[in-house]
Input
Amino acid sequence: MVSIIALLATGSAYLIVTDLRDSLHTTDPIGDLREQDDPAAPPEQDNATDILLVGTDARTDMQGNPLPARMLDLLNTERSSGINTDTLIVLRVPKNGDEPTAVSIPRDTWVTTPSGDKAKINSVFGKTKARTVEQLRAEGGVDAGDIARRSDQAGRTELVKTVQQFTGVRIDHYAEVNLLGFYLLTKALDGVTVCLKRPTRDTDSGANFPAGVQELNAAQALSFVRQRKNLPDGLGRIHRQQAFLASALHEILSTDTLSDSDRLDELVEAARRSMVLDPDLDLLRFAGRMRGIASDEVSFETIPVETISAHTSDGLSIVRTDADEVRDFMAGLVDGSGAGPSPSSVSGGGRASPASVSDYRFAAAEVPCVY
Output
């Protein structure tokens, strides 16, 4: 979507974006929820357009085909049959033209699902997909491709419903990218600049970075945003993702990128190959409303959390939150009624402080330095 905003800024977006829109993969969890007419859903009309941005750890292409071993090696990962939504961001775009805010939800956030079960929020998609696969196979007469499509749709719908219930925000649109997509989009940028406060290493993700400002290629960038070990707190991965996005936005909207037709073509092709959007997301209209990003008017926040390193009775590591506080926080971003921006930071004992800390709030103009 940022690629589309960049195209609009060049003044030659219409034909390109129209062609891109007609060739993108689509999914419609929002339409499914409208048909269900859930009386507990948040009000459809509020003061913002809300887009759920999802990053999955799926080791497949957009057609559901497993990635070859050589690609998995390039991505510093191994084959896995499950799927987790390890990046969840609610992009709140106020209808009055105020600054958009991208709000991260930690992957281990402990939530109540629409069915009443307790689960980590990153598992909702995968568990629902697995249940749907079993049901469809038991019914018989459904080919493998249809099973994959229908189970993905069920997982996405349940995820959107869970996020709505948790945040009190009605999700208007959905966008998804997987590991391969992230790699392709970063490759199209020809690298992204990041800054680290200290050297770090994690053999699981492939991260091995010195301190200071540095340029990451696509494979290194994936390691950078997926690193979990050897970070100072349980929200370190989110801070990495936000810092990367802030830097990538700045890179995409720079003069060098906007004037490079070959790079713009690569961004469009990467989006075509890697993104899944809901069919009602009008790309040109969205890009027009988000042109403020070109002036660096976007911030990255994290929901308030109570305890970062909590555990369930069976030893599962989770992030605990106060649902009412989360809903107040989300509402305050657009209508001035809640606590407003107060991103989570870490204090002693693994608890989050409600105070705003500049280290954890990024603008698109910055290349923020993180751990």
